[in-house]
Design a protein that fits this description.
Strand order of the largest sheet: 9-8-5-4-12-13-14-15
Largest sheet: 8 strands, antiparallel
Structural class: mainly beta
Number of strands: 17
Order of helices and strands: HEEEEEEHEEHEEEEEEEEHE
Helix content: 10-25%
Number of helices: 4
Radius of gyration: 18 Å
Shape: globular
Length: 281
């Protein structure tokens, strides 16, 4: 018998297929978009041994650290914030949580979890280095259980089948949530991420499903509106071109320029280049 989560995912997947939605592929992960007058909808389809994520900015700049609505499909460990604070002056990637030495991933849930931003409110590198502020993925957000009643609207269990993990995300226009951007159909930067080579492992190298340090060349960014998915580049070009309709059957392969330089560029319908020059996240 199918669980309610599996039924819900299949219903949305059938709906997305019916409207021939556009899909952005980054590394081994696929993010399928569709939209109507009420908002956007995204289905995550990621490998079961690697976490993946999406960050939605309030404007044309990719807010990878601050002010970007952060959605992570992963196993979500439970961290000890006191332990995390002691990592502050370590070299990256061991200077920030979630980190295997401070966070317990055993038996923790796998699902889609949202954070108002990666680094949390009030964070700055000069003051805090890798230790995030309130509500951040790299702040005290990861010191609260994903399943806890304190943030009941910020976590949905994933469907895990045939080596893949799946989850659906609804992004209604005009929805006011504390700390999050209020979305509309205007153009904005959307960043995609997946655990890559060198990503942190919480199970002795078996998987990188638990979210932690992302590894090399783990980002791509695109410009997305309520009707189109447009060029990716770094920095993003604010004059859009090469746009693809969101509700057309389009496969878009987003390639980090670091991978492209290594000869790993591939294309399905369109190749979107993105160079994310961050050494950590």
């Amino acid at each position: 018998r199918l669980s309610m989560a599996q039924i819900s995912f299949l219903l949305v997947a059938v709906s997305l297929d019916a409207v021939r939605a556009a899909t952005v592929q980054f590394l081994d992960s696929r993010f399928t978009f569709t939209s109507d007058t009420t908002g956007m909808f995204v289905s995550f389809d990621c490998p079961a041994d690697k976490w993946c994520g999406m960050i939605i900015s309030g404007n044309l700049e990719p807010d990878v650290f601050e002010n970007g609505d952060t959605y992570i499909l992963a196993r979500h460990s439970l961290c000890d914030c006191t332990c995390c604070s002691k990592l502050k002056y370590n070299d990256y990637p061991d200077h920030t949580c979630p980190h295997p030495s401070c966070c317990n991933s055993s038996g923790r849930p796998v699902g889609l979890r949202s954070f108002p931003s990666v680094m949390g409110e009030g964070w700055s590198w000069a003051k805090d280095r890798g230790i995030g502020g309130p509500e951040g993925l790299r702040g005290d957000g990861s010191c609260h259980s994903a399943e806890g009643a304190e943030y009941p609207d910020q976590f949905e269990y994933a469907v895990i089948e045939n080596g893949r993990i799946y989850a659906n995300l609804s992004l209604p226009y005009g929805d006011i949530r504390t700390g999050y951007n209020t979305l509309d159909a205007s153009l904005r930067a959307v960043s995609f991420s997946q655990a890559s080579i060198g990503a942190a492992s919480f199970d002795g190298g078996v998987t990188s499903l638990t979210v932690g340090y992302h590894g090399k060349n783990a980002f791509a960014s695109c410009l997305v509106s309520g009707t189109e998915i447009c060029d990716c580049s770094w920095p993003l070009n604010k004059i859009t071109k090469n746009c693809e309709p969101m509700n057309d059957p389009v496969d878009i392969v987003a390639v980090n320029a670091g991978l492209a330089d290594a000869g790993n560029m591939i294309g399905v319908h369109a190749v979107l280049l993105a160079a994310i020059a961050f050494s950590w996240w």
